[in-house]
């Protein structure tokens, strides 16, 4: 069963070679060209020693070494993993039945006590994993079952437990002050060694409950420089490369790259509380002025998708949206002055801002740009000091559910309400969406809430981003996951 001032080009290649030559064999061992081990280059080095209670958890998940009670399918619905089934056992309680025959990488069997230990440690961590923000839970063992009780009813609890930050590890992982995942997972590959922020080594788990993995192991290198990552794939030094920059994609063969739609939307948030965009007609005028296709072609070199709504193609059911059902008629800007803010941390955003400035000025606005580092501009953006703000925003959080993003960004009491929106119709729709049971009912309520936000023109979605993954033509079965939870699976190998 499978669960699944720039340097010249030559100098950059040389730098990449120096960074990467001979780096894929485990330290102290010679490379074995016949071993068929997977050589993987990743963008971000570990920030917290690969603790699952941090964002490093997503590396453990992408290497198929640490696993959770449930996984998510393409629609974001929960599917069995270390738990085979679950049921609501009260308004705020869920009972999970554990899979039999699972052993940790240290040879100890998976028990309910192990699940209690892992989830309790996460619930009591400071800071908590973000998936548990605002969630209080207690976990108890009941034979081969685990009962999870939340302080308030939570229809998304199974989805929350799919977060890689809630991976289940063996007791040995918790013996120190920090959580150490080395040799403590249940997945298809055993994490054997971590060399600080430079590399990691994993070997096949021959006793994996889901069947024998195809590859004998994984040798990982962390290479933050995007040019060096692309060079590693181009030169044959790597089999799988994470996050190839758009600027490097054209230098690779088409059969080496895959563009994966991301649940991330580049959006122009309009300030509905003060300034020009208090007027719905001027918000509509801004909507009509934006040429998103030109942004995709010019800034993203065609490697993005024009937005039809706030939720993009990475969320399959979003195509069922109604969209704007009551669009306002556009007014005349008549030279109205507006200031648009954005930040430099994402290289494409200043370019998007410059292109938008031209488009809005052609429509009759007078446009000033203010561009800073994100840390220096976030407070002003949240305080509503700009008429508009350009943001690349993730539209699903760790639960795979967009309702939290919509509420955070557009509810009158939302914690990230850049639009300063206070619209009763939007609040009502968002309240219904956040309380709905998971499945078709919740998806329909989320799309209705999206329509309410779009009708208000509080945010103008422009494009949906893609991530570019590089694979050697010899690689079979690597995952192309919009949520970036999977990369190497039990079915991945080099032919």
From TrEMBL:
<dbReference type="InterPro" id="IPR039424">
    <property type="entry name" value="SBP_5"/>
</dbReference>
<feature type="signal peptide">
    <location>
        <begin position="1"/>
        <end position="25"/>
    </location>
</feature>
<protein>
    <submittedName>
        <fullName>ABC transporter substrate-binding protein</fullName>
    </submittedName>
</protein>
<dbReference type="GO" id="GO:0015833">
    <property type="term" value="P:peptide transport"/>
</dbReference>
<dbReference type="GO" id="GO:0042597">
    <property type="term" value="C:periplasmic space"/>
</dbReference>
<dbReference type="InterPro" id="IPR030678">
    <property type="entry name" value="Peptide/Ni-bd"/>
</dbReference>
<dbReference type="GO" id="GO:1904680">
    <property type="term" value="F:peptide transmembrane transporter activity"/>
</dbReference>
<dbReference type="InterPro" id="IPR000914">
    <property type="entry name" value="SBP_5_dom"/>
</dbReference>
<dbReference type="GO" id="GO:0043190">
    <property type="term" value="C:ATP-binding cassette (ABC) transporter complex"/>
</dbReference>
<feature type="domain" description="Solute-binding protein family 5">
    <location>
        <begin position="78"/>
        <end position="415"/>
    </location>
</feature>
<dbReference type="Pfam" id="PF00496">
    <property type="entry name" value="SBP_bac_5"/>
</dbReference>
<keyword id="KW-0732">Signal</keyword>
């Amino acid at each position: 069963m499978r669960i699944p001032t720039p340097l010249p080009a030559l100098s950059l290649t040389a730098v990449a070679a120096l960074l990467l030559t001979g780096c894929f064999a485990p330290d102290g061992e010679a490379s074995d060209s016949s071993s068929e081990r997977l050589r993987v280059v990743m963008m971000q080095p570990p920030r917290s020693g690969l603790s699952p209670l941090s964002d490093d958890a997503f590396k453990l998940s992408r290497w198929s070494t640490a696993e959770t009670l449930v996984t998510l399918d393409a629609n974001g619905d929960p599917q069995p993993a270390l738990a085979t089934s679950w049921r609501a056992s009260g308004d705020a309680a869920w009972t999970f039945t554990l899979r039999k025959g699972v052993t940790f990488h240290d040879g100890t069997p998976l028990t309910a006590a192990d699940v209690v230990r892992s989830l309790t440690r996460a619930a009591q961590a400071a800071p908590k994993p973000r998936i548990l923000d605002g969630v209080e839970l207690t976990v108890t063992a009941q034979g081969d079952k685990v009962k999870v009780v939340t302080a308030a009813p939570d229809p998304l609890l199974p989805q929350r437990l799919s977060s890689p930050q809630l991976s289940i590890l063996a007791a040995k992982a918790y013996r120190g002050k920090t959580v150490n995942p080395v040799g403590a997972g249940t997945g298809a590959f055993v994490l054997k060694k971590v060399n600080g922020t430079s590399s990691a080594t994993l070997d096949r788990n021959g006793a994996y409950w889901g069947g024998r993995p195809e590859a004998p192991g994984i040798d990982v290198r962390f290479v933050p420089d995007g040019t060096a990552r692309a060079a590693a794939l181009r030169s044959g030094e790597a089999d799988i490369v994470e996050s190839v920059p758009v600027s490097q994609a054209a230098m690779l063969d088409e059969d080496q790259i895959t563009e994966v739609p991301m649940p991330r939307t580049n959006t122009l948030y309009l300030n509905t509380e003060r300034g020009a965009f208090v007027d719905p007609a001027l918000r509509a005028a801004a909507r009509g002025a934006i040429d998103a296709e030109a942004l995709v072609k010019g800034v993203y070199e065609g490697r993005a998708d024009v937005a039809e709504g706030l939720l993009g193609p990475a969320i399959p059911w979003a195509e069922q949206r109604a969209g704007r059902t009551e669009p306002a008629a556009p007014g005349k800007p008549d030279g109205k002055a507006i200031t648009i803010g954005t930040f430099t941390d994402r290289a494409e955003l200043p370019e998007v801002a410059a292109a938008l400035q031209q488009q809005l000025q052609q429509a009759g606005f007078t446009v000033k740009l203010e561009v800073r580092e994100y840390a220096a501009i976030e407070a002003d953006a949240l305080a509503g000091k700009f008429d508009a703000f350009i943001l690349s925003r993730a539209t699903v959080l760790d639960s795979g559910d967009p309702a939290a993003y919509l509420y955070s960004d557009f509810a009158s009491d939302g914690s990230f309400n850049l639009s300063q929106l206070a619209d009763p119709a939007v609040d009502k729709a968002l309240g219904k969406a956040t309380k709905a049971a998971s499945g078709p009912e919740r998806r329909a309520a989320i799309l209705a809430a999206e329509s309410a936000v779009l009708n208000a023109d509080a945010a103008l979605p422009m494009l949906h981003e893609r991530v570019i993954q590089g694979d050697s033509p010899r690689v079979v079965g690597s995952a192309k996951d919009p949520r970036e939870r999977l990369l190497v699976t039990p079915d991945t190998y080099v032919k």
